[in-house]
Design goal:
InterPro entries: Fungal_SecMetab_SDRs, NAD(P)-bd_dom_sf, SDR_fam
CATH topology: Rossmann fold
Largest sheet: 7 strands, parallel
Shape: globular
Structural class: alpha/beta
Number of strands: 7
Number of helices: 6
Pfam families: adh_short
Bound molecules: NADPH dihydro-nicotinamide-adenine-dinucleotide phosphate
Strand content: 5-15%
Order of helices and strands: EHEHEHEHEHEHE
CATH superfamily: NAD(P)-binding Rossmann-like Domain
CATH class: Alpha Beta
Distance between the termini: 28 Å
GO molecular function: oxidoreductase activity
Length: 257
């Protein structure tokens, strides 16, 4: 993963599951700065991340960021901005998400609102607040075209947001608020790719596969976080303007919208 060497990256939901594994692998890939964002840095769910940051204090910075809270997003962006150098932020990974197990018939207003706040509105405001640093990175890079070591936004999506795949899956689908919100996230990808194309900031939606995490249902899932993140980072490394605004999975396969 030579492309990440010397790059800066920010990952949301970095305290467990795929986010934590992504921080570990970005470290292995020799990123120079990894901002590991999580909503409760001092809480019990962040112990593994605190241990990792203790071992790599120069590279890993833990940042408090509740993606469902716009003021927390603003404060985090100020902090990260003050720590980033003149090369800006190369990679922003919108990974944090929630999945209430509800169907179309029993999802409450709160289920819908909380899921949208976390899975769509959070990533939107994160992109907006971190945009100046992404633009700085794109300008500072001096490379032609688009690439992850220049400036990229990766929205972690899911196959259950696919309007083509979803109707084939279990009925009644128990991820109703989640799949609708991730379909919204996919449209955010399309807008981001279009609106910041001239700034040479690329954006894709990326499905990590069905992975053994709390959200993935633990051991029921076929792949572990290591395999998923290795695949995702391989895909991220290979991105060019051709994939801008696309929806891919961790093997590089194009996903149907
Ligand atoms: P986990 O349940 O293991 O982790 C979810 C992460 O999101 C946690 O770090 C959690 O933090 C964080 N989070 C949730 N709400 C917020 C919030 N308001 N602010 C900040 N952080 C928050 O899930 P995965 O690692 O499996 O999922 C990562 C991504 O991959 C998600 O976008 C998910 O939709 C996607 N995905 C996962 C699949 C799978 O099979 N695992 C399949 C398809 C997509 P906290 O510890 O504080 O709760």
């Amino acid at each position: 993963m030579a492309a990440f060497k010397g790059c800066s990256a920010l990952v949301t939901g970095a305290n467990r599951g795929l986010g934590l594994e992504m921080v570990k692998q970005l470290l292995e890939a020799q990123c120079s700065k990894v901002f590991a964002a999580c909503r409760d840095p001092d809480g019990p769910n962040s112990e593994a991340l605190r241990e990792l940051a203790k071992k790599h204090p120069v590279v890993v910075t833990i940042v408090q960021l509740d993606v469902a809270d716009p003021s927390s997003i603003k404060v985090s962006a100020k902090k990260v901005g003050s720590l980033l150098g003149k090369n800006g932020l190369n990679l922003l990974v919108n990974n944090a998400a929630m999945l209430p197990q509800k169907t179309m018939l029993n999802a409450t207003v709160e289920d819908m609102q909380n899921t949208f706040n976390t899975n769509v509105i959070g990533p939107l405001f994160i992109i907006r607040e971190y945009l100046p640093y992404l633009k700085t990175a794109a300008k500072a890079s001096g490379k032609p075209g688009m690439s992850c070591d220049k400036a990229a936004v990766i929205n972690i999506s899911t196959d259950s947001a696919s309007m083509t795949i979803m109707p084939e899956v279990i009925d009644p689908f128990p991820f109703f608020p989640y799949s609708i919100s991730k379909a919204g996230l996919n449209m955010l990808t399309v807008y981001t790719a279009r609106d910041f194309k001239a700034d040479e900031i690329l954006c894709i939606s990326l499905h990590p596969g069905w992975v053994k995490t709390d959200m993935g249902g633990g051991d029921m899932a076929p792949i572990d976080t290591r395999e998923s993140v290795e695949g995702m980072l391989r895909v991220i490394c290979s991105l060019t303007e051709k994939q801008n605004g696309g929806f891919l999975d961790y093997t590089g396969k194009t996903m149907p919208w």
